[in-house]
Specification:
Length: about 250
């Protein structure tokens, strides 16, 4: 077990330690960096320890916002992508519209979300949903379109049509692209989480960072960023594990 972990993460851990050492040299040891904006580990780690209960509470509040938003984007993005990707008529109709709307930054929708939706929680969830939806939708459509024709020909020979064709052939064939879009949207969701928690939220990882940034309490800010980074690493590793298990039939494991 340990040799496998060392082989997989050894170089990443060594690089991380080098970055930490350089940061410590530039802060606590030499003061090369401005000490207010860049406090050293001697200030960050105590604040991390003291703030840990609040950060853990914020984690659960953030996940209660992030998970429903992301899962909604996942379900609607995959189902919509399968539907549009499987029909040449729907692709010709909707793809120009998708290409025009998808690049719009979700943060530009914040005033409209606050004005239209009844609660700040729904407004925050919508912003995360809007950012997560498009990569999943477009990844699914491209996965369906790039499916090799021979698979569809074989399915036609076996008499597969409609929903059975989508479930047995199209969806598994598009899964690599679906996971690619889902991974991108998951990372983007964490970026938007900080933005979404800036309004209407009283707790959360993003709220913690933004709150103490407003007071220029940068040891707490960096402690919050460190905690959030660790959480993202763990969640993305879990995502990669699910991806490897799900795509066991492909060459990329």
């Amino acid at each position: 077990m340990f040799p496998e972990l060392l082989k997989k993460y050894g170089r990443s851990f060594a690089l991380l330690m080098l970055m930490v050492l350089l940061f410590e040299v530039a802060t606590d040891l030499t003061g090369w960096l401005e000490p207010v904006l860049f406090p050293g580990l001697s200030k960050i780690l105590p604040e991390f320890y003291k703030s840990l209960p609040k950060l853990i509470k914020g984690l659960f509040n953030s996940l209660s916002l992030l998970i429903p938003s992301y899962l909604s984007a996942l379900v609607l993005g995959i189902s919509g992508g399968l539907l549009v990707g499987s029909s040449a008529t729907l692709r010709a109709t909707f793809m120009p519209i998708f290409r025009g709307i998808s690049p719009i930054p979700p943060t530009m929708l914040i005033p409209y979300a606050i004005a239209v939706l009844p609660t700040f929680w729904l407004s925050s969830a919508f912003i995360i949903f809007a950012g997560a939806f498009w990569p999943i939708l477009m990844g699914t459509i491209h996965g369906v379109v790039l499916l090799e024709q021979r698979y569809l020909d074989n399915a036609s020979t076996l008499g597969l049509r409609g929903f059975r064709l989508l479930r047995i052939v199209v969806f598994p064939g598009a899964l690599p692209m679906i996971f690619s879009g889902a991974g991108m949207s998951l990372v983007f969701s964490f970026i938007l989480l900080t933005v979404a928690e800036m309004f209407g939220a009283k707790s959360g990882m993003g709220h913690f960072i933004q709150y103490y940034a407003d007071f220029s309490d940068y040891p707490k800010v960096l402690a919050g960023m460190l905690f959030m980074s660790l959480v993202i690493i763990l969640i993305m590793e879990l995502f990669d594990l699910v991806q490897r298990r799900t795509l066991h039939w492909t060459a990329k494991r």
